[in-house]
Amino acid sequence: SGINAEYGIMKLLRLRQLNNGVFVKLNKSSKEMLRSAEPYIAYGYPNLKTVRELIYKRGFGKVNGQRMPINDNYVIEESLGKYGITSIEDLIHELFTEGP
Question: Cα(49)–Cα(93) distance, rounded to whole angstroms?
């Protein structure tokens, strides 16, 4: 494996610039990708406080193809209301508990 392979893996993980973070559902293939990119990234299991701080300070989501800051319950309810997620705290709970 070379630098190009790790770069490709980091693109797949949506880590395209410094100081970015993503939540990744852990499975066999994502574990392998994390192991391959290990020299260039830090990873682990976040605690509830960390998830909450990340969402409130740096949270963005895609709404109708546009990148929107997660700073309003209206945005959450419009996008995720059909899944029973109506507030920022609901979203944080779902991320932390890995969904329903």
Answer: 11
**DSSP codes of every residue in 42-100:** ---PPPHHHHHHHHHHH-EEEETTEEEES--HHHHHHHHGGGT--SHHHHHHHHHTT--
The torsion angles phi and psi of 13, rounded to 5 degrees, stand at -80, 0
- Residue at token pair 């779902």: 94
SS3 8: helix
Left, alpha or beta for 64 (phi > 0: left; psi -120 to 50: alpha)? Answer: left
Contact in structure between 47 and 16 (CB atoms under 8 Å): no
Q: List, for residues 9-65, the tens digit of each pLDDT value.
A: 889 888 888 888 888 888 999 999 999 888 888 999 899 999 999 999 988 888 888
The position carrying tokens 């100081």 is: 19
